[in-house]
Specification:
By secondary structure, this protein is of the alpha+beta class. 62% of the residues lie in helices and 8% in strands.
Length: 355
């Protein structure tokens, strides 16, 4: 009988496969490239895997960075913003050049009108031939001005479409930058913005709540079955949370195995009932492999704090975290309200805050 393969050996095999594949395809050993091939080889993101499979045998760094920007936008922020800035600067300069050209053309047309008007005023009698020449000059000048204006309008329309394309790309990037690449729900960056917004609106403070959820004994799951299985479990729990909440409810992955829900319009008991229903649903879900290996039972612990019980976003997170901690130390797989918890040491919520 062959000895069982341990999770650490599986992880080493995956790491070796990633390095070997990258070497065979001539891919530079950059961290951002490793991330792409790791996700592709573990199969945690089907769309990404298919894009990697469709690459040429010797992909360029530009091709890889295109995939990276699409699936790991938060790691390509500088390049995406720099490209958008360069495109905007070029398009705006082109628009300014067009407007300067149009201004010059209109000024010339105005000068012709002024000269014609002065000439007509200074003459008491004009021959038919002179009038015909004046009409001819004015007709040419007018048609030229109209044609130039049409060209400018067409070009401005094209530039407007190009600028709209840049705007759309930046909007997509913003969504990607605020999305967790593993679970496709909101990430910590988006959560930091959302929790801060609660205290910009009195109604949100009165009827808002924060729920923190943490997978129980997750390290044991990783140690026993390996990190790819752990990633799959995180994905499945994210799907359960997202699939059983109203579309206007906010759910994010805020850490390795930690999730956060921001709810509005419900009291403490209603929030508790919703959280406990999600907890029970996760407990009842069978987490298994296609071959029938059962990875369970998988449970989560939760902590709740109403926004009205806190002085601000930092305080709200800290108090929900205390409630979560109480769920952990009293047996796990349960939901605890902050209103039933005594004080304990705090931890900061704003990981993205800049000094």
């Amino acid at each position: 009988m062959q000895p069982a393969i341990t999770p650490s050996e599986k992880s080493n095999d995956i790491a070796m496969s990633v390095v070997t594949t990258m070497r065979q395809m001539g891919v530079m050993g950059l961290p951002r490239n490793y991330e792409i091939f790791y996700e592709a080889l573990t199969g945690s993101n089907h769309d990404l895997t298919m894009e990697v499979v469709s690459l040429s045998s010797r992909p360029s760094q530009e091709e890889l960075d295109r995939i990276g920007r699409k699936y790991f936008a938060q790691n390509h922020e500088h390049a995406i913003v720099a490209t958008a800035r360069e495109t905007l600067a070029k398009e705006l300069e082109d628009v300014a050049r067009l407007l300067r050209s149009e201004r010059s053309h209109i000024e010339k047309y105005g000068a012709i009108l002024t000269e014609t008007s002065d000439g007509l005023t200074s003459r008491h009698a004009m021959s038919r031939e002179l009038l015909q020449r004046i009409v001819s000059v004015m007709s040419v000048a007018t048609n030229s001005t109209i044609d130039h204006g049409k060209q400018v309008a067409t070009t401005l329309s094209e530039k407007s479409a190009e600028l709209e394309s840049v705007k759309s790309a930046l909007e997509k990037y913003k969504i990607l930058a605020d999305t967790d690449p593993l679970t496709h729900i909101w990430n910590r960056r988006a959560f930091d913005k959302q929790i801060a917004d609660i205290y910009n609106d009195r109604k949100s403070v009165m009827f808002g709540a924060l729920v923190l959820a943490d997978i129980d004994r997750f390290k044991e799951i990783n140690d026993r079955f390996g990190h790819p299985v752990g990633d799959k479990i995180i994905q499945l729990i994210a799907e359960i949370l997202r699939g059983n909440l109203h579309s206007d409810m906010f759910v994010a992955r805020t850490g390795g195995e930690e999730f956060a829900l921001i709810l509005e319009g419900a009291g403490e008991q209603a929030t508790y009932d919703l959280a406990d229903g999600l907890r029970a649903l996760i407990e009842q879900t069978v987490f298994s492999s296609p071959t029938g290996v059962n990875y369970g039972p998988v449970t989560v612990s939760m902590g709740i704090c109403m926004a009205s019980e806190a002085d601000g976003p930092d305080d709200l997170y800290s108090k929900a975290d205390r409630a979560l901690y109480r769920s952990k130390i009293t047996g796990r797989n349960r939901v605890t309200k902050f209103s039933t918890v005594q004080d304990r040491p705090l931890k900061s919520w704003l990981l993205y805050k800049k000094d």
